[in-house]
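notes to self, project folder thing:

trying the whole complex as one job this time. last attempt i did each chain seperately and stitching them together was a nightmare. two parts in total, labels are on each line so i dont mix them up again. if this works i'll redo the older ones the same way
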Amino acid sequence: GEDVEQSLFLSVREGDSSVINCTYTDSSSTYLYWYKQEPGAGLQLLTYIFSNMDMKQDQRLTVLLNKKDKHLSLRIADTQTGDSAIYFCAEMWGNEKLTFGTGTRLTIIP
Amino acid sequence: NAGVTQTPKFQVLKTGQSMTLQCAQDMNHEYMSWYRQDPGMGLRLIHYSVGAGITDQGEVPNGYNVSRSTTEDFPLRLLSAAPSQTSVYFCASSWLTGQRAEAFFGQGTRLTVV
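result (full assembly):
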């Protein structure tokens, strides 16, 4: 089956940029997503990118997609304490099924 | 606009009991699905539906049943709860058209089976 991999932890100083990486295996994925999960909460949709795009920017968030290498990244500019959370990447296949990575826990250092 | 609503938020069951986790969406989305989240494993797909009257199995369907009699509702039934079903359950609904592919999640149901 499909496999999505992320590193488990990332620590970044407040004000710096955070870059969270993800690799996936299903070349037929149509959409790729980034979700944010704060402790005890649900998954908040941050952004998504269509597989025929290379980049998408939305305020402090930049998504880069390298389809050849099956690599997806999320850059958060000017990282704030409120950005502390677990970030999940996910790939959509079959129009209704998401395969998730294990999540990256982002810690902000004051 | 409530989005995706799950009830209950918390539940404790005894082994062998049955219960239904409720999920409702008010966005008229065609696609709905159930995931479970376990530590260190991300989210795994249990069952999904591409429309009213149509359901199919995901990655970890054993021990769970679903039905989709309306577009809005997609309940998940545990027939005979087991401790291995202790988890956080998330319902999602999605809508894809052209380059819009919105997939939203409920706030989750934390289930403990003792």
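what i see at first glance: The mean pLDDT of chain B is 93.
need to look closer tmrw
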